[in-house]
Known about the structure:
By secondary structure, this protein is mainly α. It is 72% helix and 2% strand. It has 25 helices and four strands. The chain has helices spanning 2-9, 12-20, 24-48, 63-85, 90-108, 122-152, 160-179, 183-201, 207-238, 243-248, 251-268, 276-280, 286-295, 298-307, 309-312, 316-337, 342-363, 366-397, 408-411, 413-427, 432-447, 449-474, 489-525, 533-548, 601-624, and strands at 55-57, 118-120, 577-579, 585-587. The chain has a two-stranded antiparallel ribbon with strand order 1-2. Helix 5 runs parallel beside helix 9 (207-238), helix 11 (251-268) runs antiparallel to helix 14 (298-307) and helix 20 (413-427) packs antiparallel against helix 22. The protein is globular, with a radius of gyration of 24 Å.
Amino acid sequence: MKTLFFLMAFPLLPAVLLAAVSAARWRNAIVKMSSVVLAAAAVALGVAHVKGGTSYYAVEGHWVDGALFCGEIGLSLYLLVKGFLSRRYVVPLLVVLQTGLMIYSEFFGGVVSAERDLSVDNLSVIMAMIVGVVGGLISIYSLWYMKDYHAHHPEIPNRTRSFFFVVFVFLAAMFGIVFSNNLRWMYFFWEVTSVCSFWLIGYSQTEEAVQNAFRALKINLLGGLSFALGIVYLAFVHKTVDMSQLLAMGQAAALIPAMFIAFAGLTKSAQMPFSSWLLGAMVAPTPVSALLHSSTMVKAGVYVIIKMAPILQNTAAGFVIALIGGVTFLLASATAVSQNNAKRVLAYSTIANLGLIVACGGVGTFEAVWAAILLVVFHAVAKGLLFLTVGTIEHEIGSRDIEDMHGLITRSPALAIFMLIGIAGMFLAPFGMLISKWVTLKAFIDSNPILAILLAFGSAPTLFFWAKWMGKLLAVPHTPRRTAGQIEPEEWTALLGLAVLTIGACGLFPLIAAEYIEPYTMQLYGHAFSLGYANLAIMGIMLGALILLPLGFFYFPKNLKYEGAYMAGANLPGNLSFQGSLGQPRDMIIRNVYFRAYFNEASLSRLGNWITVLLIVLMFVTAEL
Length: 625
């Protein structure tokens, strides 16, 4: 229990110090040391919990309950003031509703408390390692990024001290979510993450940033209201707020509160029709996007849905949740095809992959849960690497347009290789995302063929948009040139660390599955999924070949000869233009195809929103049947 408390409480110490310290030298030291300590503590917990079961801990006395309740009231007052001052009255309305429910439950729901406030199982250990290691690397990267960000945007007030304060509070809240067995505790930490994301998205305080921050806040407060309803229902009907008792009481009794909590998970994980908040979050500095997409916020949403999976298994409501995730996966993947903004491609990819995890949680079988947990792991490291690399590329070339990354392998080989590793980690064999999708396909076929169809048709555009991005990076222009920029030590630490994790997770995933995921599914279902040794051997050989591939990019023979593009034999001097059929010079243009007429963002978004709204209504209707 000491390790759990340490992970939940320790980030608050650097948060307070960073809020008070203005000297960059001290800030750098505090962030680096704290990130290393958090990562080490999370990994130590993981090592200590190898093949471990579920452990529960009761916290003596009610002082923690009282402190968290006071903190909840403080958060509510802060949001009330923000909502009224900005004249966004939906925010105060949602705050009053959910806080009123929790106060009513606290004082009029009888003496209801969790028997055990904290718990640790293999799923929470995996989540803790993601938060500690990936979150720590993103924090280190932020040191350089925020300095460079304000150098490029002097018009934006420098609130770096508050930025790092919020980041470390965010990490503490994430640890609180994954270790809480007391649902009231989990709800408090859930709301802290909503407030932190609101502050970080609105960091620049531009009109667009403020608008998108409030959109994210409203959507997540709606999820918080649903979470509060689930807790109140449990407290009044079943006289408990204990997560373990909820999971043990059987589907008939647990399904309604599980639906409320799952709905909160849908909002937090940016599933349609709630995906707009995550797209709007792109206005924030790049480390914020990386944090939201990889190690915090959206991972909290899928975490609670995976926790609810045993309750959702073989239920109509669970199947509807799986459909919501499947539709989101299909339409978000299709929309990404039409995007040339690198951050928007990454955002839609995140929404799509979270949809796949949600679909696995809705199916709820041991195979689906096995796949969902692996998807969480591989998505966290690969997407963190991609977002941070895009942030560095944007500062290097002054653009986040994929078309402007043409020939990056010749201009900045290191950044191109980091991007290629991240992209390969998202869709190529033998990286884990593809393996997880294979297991997901098997789980969907065993559950319902409709889900398998959604997976198949959603995976096709995924292959397309990742492959064409790869092509732009690997293109060799006629006159290659190096980018003059220099990668700072903090960037190298984060990018290299996440690249190693992306490759290492693939090589170590049999160990991760055997030591953490299989014991978890065995404990819940009495069954565990396992890949055959032949498949593992083939994957090992492919991984070895992939490790050798990037080394070739650093080898440029001195006598390397560049040939111009063949343009029907009508090349003009310079080999960058050609003579057209009417004798007019035409510039050679190499661009990707985006099929915007077929994959229109607005049309697909409207379609997805309508379908998923109807499915959400159906979800609650079926839960009552």
